[in-house]
Design goal:
mainly alpha, 16 helices, 313 residues
Length: 313
């Protein structure tokens, strides 16, 4: 009896070992990505502790004095907090609302093109802006929207005076979001195009025979196919709603548009690297990350309730 129990206890271990021996090559392929993730994603998390300290580069992380939540309270009570937080939230929120449907619409339109050559050329045209450097994109914006640029040349012919697009705060969000859509919407549509490629053509053929028009086929065949992907993409986008790209916002900043262009990433850069207040900037960055995590969990919960249990996890 005891021998049988010993064999039963040993079986799970042997099964796990046999499984590892059978699939060890997959673990070898996984190892580089896992190691890089541990080093560059989880390793730097230790440095977040300086957000709770009066960090001094001379004393180091362990030697610096512990100040608790002082840096967070300093940021929350700062006169710049409301402006910076709302700028970040508005830019991200409007970018999500306006930018999320565009890749879906592009994918649905591309799916209706039956000529392979034409479809590939259109896809190349839509994907190309994604490979343009952020620096080049911002340079193009300054050239085209400058007082002597081609757009203002047309405006001057009509109104008699140019519009200072890159200097006036009220234009910053619109320029930022529209240029983001132009550069990223085509590339973001790839995942939807791939999903729509798996739709059985017989479904559309049967719908045609039943008298369904184009919009009805899209509504009842195409959209249900990509709905799970839409949910996951939306959850990830909403979870990173406070994580705006630093480079583009910083490059687009001018002394005149700071009231709307100063966001948390640019503020962290200026306080941390330019002013040398590392602990305070770490606290601001950690605050931003916590907001993202809370939004990710909240949006995932809401989407799962509305989407019949389909969510990120």
């Amino acid at each position: 009896m005891e021998a049988k129990q010993a064999q039963m206890v040993a079986k799970p271990g042997n099964a796990a070992l046999d499984y590892w021996r059978k699939h060890y090559f997959l673990y070898i392929l996984l190892a580089p990505a896992l190691i890089l993730t541990l080093i560059f994603k989880y390793g730097p998390m230790y440095g977040a502790v300086i957000a709770f300290k009066d960090f001094s580069p001379i004393k180091g992380i362990l030697g610096s004095d512990w100040v608790g939540l002082y840096n967070f309270e300093k940021f929350l009570s700062s006169p710049n907090f409301d402006v910076i937080f709302m700028n970040t939230l508005k830019l991200s929120f409007f970018g999500l609302i306006l930018g999320f449907p565009i890749p879906i619409l592009l994918a649905l339109m591309l799916n209706q093109i039956r000529h392979t050559g034409v479809k590939k050329n259109i896809q190349l045209f839509l994907y190309a802006p994604n490979f343009i450097s952020v620096v080049v994109v911002v340079g193009m914006l300054f050239i085209f929207l400058s007082p002597t640029g081609p757009i203002n040349h047309l405006i001057t012919l009509v109104t008699g005076e140019p519009v200072m697009f890159m200097s006036r705060p009220q234009y910053f969000r619109g320029i930022y979001i529209l240029s983001d859509i132009w550069t990223g919407a085509g590339w973001a549509s790839i995942i939807y195009v791939a999903a729509l490629a798996n739709v059985d053509p017989e479904l559309h053929h049967a719908a045609n025979l039943d008298g369904a028009n184009l919009l009805q086929r899209i509504r009842h065949i195409d959209l249900p196919t990509i709905r799970p992907i839409m949910a996951i993409v939306f959850i990830l986008a909403a979870g990173g709603i406070m994580s705006i790209g630093f480079e583009k916002a910083y490059l687009m900043q001018t002394a005149m548009n700071l009231p709307t262009s100063e966001i948390i990433p640019t503020y962290v850069y200026k306080i941390g690297l330019q002013s040398g207040d590392y602990a305070y900037s770490a606290a601001v960055g950690l605050f931003n990350s916590v907001i993202n995590v809370v939004l990710l969990i909240t949006v995932n919960f809401i989407v799962k309730r509305l989407n019949e249990g389909d969510g990120l996890y």
